[in-house]
Specification:
Shape: globular
Order of helices and strands: HHHHEEEEHHEEEHHEEEEEEEEEEEH
Distance between the termini: 47 Å
Largest sheet: 9 strands, antiparallel
Helix content: 10-25%
Radius of gyration: 19 Å
Strand content: 25-35%
Number of strands: 18
Number of helices: 9
């Protein structure tokens, strides 16, 4: 009964207004009130502040500063083996596995399509048919910066407006097409294993999605798809990010989706639905036959 009420509230609540209000409050310097909120949050969610660059909850002047806190050096070492990709975020694997032609598994009884997820961009969809996907859920207690699984050159960024449903496991199990209907920022990279997509998915009370190269992408929320193209590998102004480099962040929790082409990688055997992830640890092994090939253009 309680779960049904929670899901119905997802449809009834004014999610956009609540998100704007949360972003406004989280950006305010409220002195003792900010300190109280941060301390209460860390206690309630059991946030591990010992891995933070600044472990003192009382030192953050806004809640947003606390939420996007950087980690202390060495807290999340990046796997050094060049044959392995690194996990992009602290969180929990919601789902991972093969893309069945155009379909991605969301939760029991629910699939969504690549075409819907990638905003009907047929040229972008094509390379990832029958490829692999991984969905990582970032809970409120987690570190909320997102990093590169492998070295890559940014080819394209697409902002897709949408709903702001919660992306927690309960909602994923009950709201059809959740990740294809929520607001998201799609980042396309050329890599040594072919094209790779990393998607930052918005959610209720996620006040902002930012990238390392563009800063704040949302808000504003203008209700239109926006696309940015970037110079290719070797061209002047190309944006190259190394494995483990920060590529984006959430101001309040959400989800990261990774897409890989067929035959490019195989996920680490210890990763399953429900696996806890730590940024920088083993994510996927590069298949030797693909690692030696040139990255195709999208």
């Amino acid at each position: 009964m309680l779960d049904n009420i929670k899901i119905k509230l997802q449809y009834w609540l004014p999610k956009q207004a609540l998100t704007r209000l949360a972003d406004w409050g989280a950006s305010k310097q409220a002195g003792w009130l900010t300190q109280l909120i941060v301390k209460t949050f860390t206690h309630y969610y059991r946030v591990d502040m010992q891995i933070a660059q600044n472990p003192d909850p009382a030192s953050y002047v806004t809640f947003n500063d606390f939420f996007v806190r950087p980690l202390r050096e060495g807290a999340r070492p990046i796997i050094g083996d060049t044959n392995w990709l690194a996990l992009p975020a602290d969180g929990t694997i919601s789902q991972l596995g093969p893309i069945r032609d155009d379909l991605i598994f969301q939760a029991k009884g629910h699939h969504y399509s690549l075409e819907a997820l990638l905003a009907s961009n047929s040229m972008l969809v094509k390379p990832f048919r029958n490829g692999l996907f991984a969905t990582t859920y970032l809970a409120p207690r987690d570190y909320h910066r997102v990093h590169m699984p492998c070295a890559g050159v940014l080819r394209e960024m697409i902002y897709v407006p949408g709903d702001l449903f919660s992306v927690n496991p309960l909602t994923a199990a009950h709201v059809p097409n959740l990740f294809a209907r929520n607001e998201r920022v799609i980042c396309v990279f050329d890599t040594a294993i072919g094209p790779m997509v990393q998607i930052l998915v918005g959610a209720t009370i996620v006040g902002s999605i930012e990238t390392a190269w563009a800063g704040t992408v949302t808000p504003p929320r203008e209700g239109i798809i926006k696309r940015w193209a970037y110079p290719a590998t070797g061209e002047e102004g190309a944006i190259a990010l190394e494995k483990g480099a920060e590529m984006g962040r959430f101001k309040l929790g959400s989800t990261v989706i990774n897409l890989f082409t067929a035959g490019s990688v195989q996920f680490a055997p210890q990763l399953n639905n429900g696996s806890v992830t730590r940024m920088g640890e083993a994510f996927a092994e590069i298949l030797a036959t693909v690692a030696a090939t040139e990255s195709p253009q999208i």
